[in-house]
Write a structure and sequence with these properties.
Layout lengths: L2 H21 L1 E7 L9 H8 L5 E2 L2 E2 L1 E5 L3 H12 L3 H15 L5 E3 L2 H10 L3 E6 H4 L5 E9 L1
Parallel strand pairs: 4-5, 4-6
Antiparallel strand pairs: 1-6, 1-7, 2-3
């Protein structure tokens, strides 16, 4: 292989690899007006297990993004460290024993994004490719990346 071909191949790889990885990244996302600057892994897990999490004395609320079954499974397995069944049982247990309402579960990406834009205390998760470049949203952190 000539040096020129090698250079061209390296340039292509460095440009394509981040795009491929970006498609397989799950990110924590909020509306642009949200007070959330950062949440650590424990706070994210607590929030989506329906425990209270506060930022600037305001209670955050999770928005479960069920628009893509693979996204949901990746989030539950790699971030919450639970299977779908275990997570559902945990949430229903809290609803029944503590009288908490069910977390907001939305089945379309558009609904999730509109909710985040309208509610500064709402926090959700999405594929990076679905939210990158949206000026009405802010990516707080990468939760998982392949």
């Amino acid at each position: 292989m000539t040096m020129r071909r090698l250079v061209i191949l390296l340039v292509l790889i460095t440009r394509i690899a981040p795009a491929i990885a970006g498609e397989r990244a799950v990110v924590l996302v909020v509306g642009a007006a949200s007070p959330v600057e950062s949440l650590d892994a424990i706070e994210v897990r607590k929030l989506f297990l329906d425990f209270p999490v506060f930022v600037r004395n305001q209670s955050l609320h999770p928005v479960d993004n069920f628009s893509d079954p693979e996204l949901r499974d990746m989030f539950l397995q790699n971030v919450i460290a639970m299977t779908r069944g275990a997570y559902d049982r945990r949430i229903l247990s809290q609803v029944n024993s503590q009288g908490r309402p069910l977390p907001l579960e939305l089945e379309s990406l558009g609904s999730v994004l509109r909710t985040l834009e309208a509610d500064p205390q709402a926090v959700s998760f999405a594929w990076l490719k679905d939210v990158v470049g949206n000026p009405r949203l802010r990516i707080v952190r990468v939760l998982w990346q392949e």
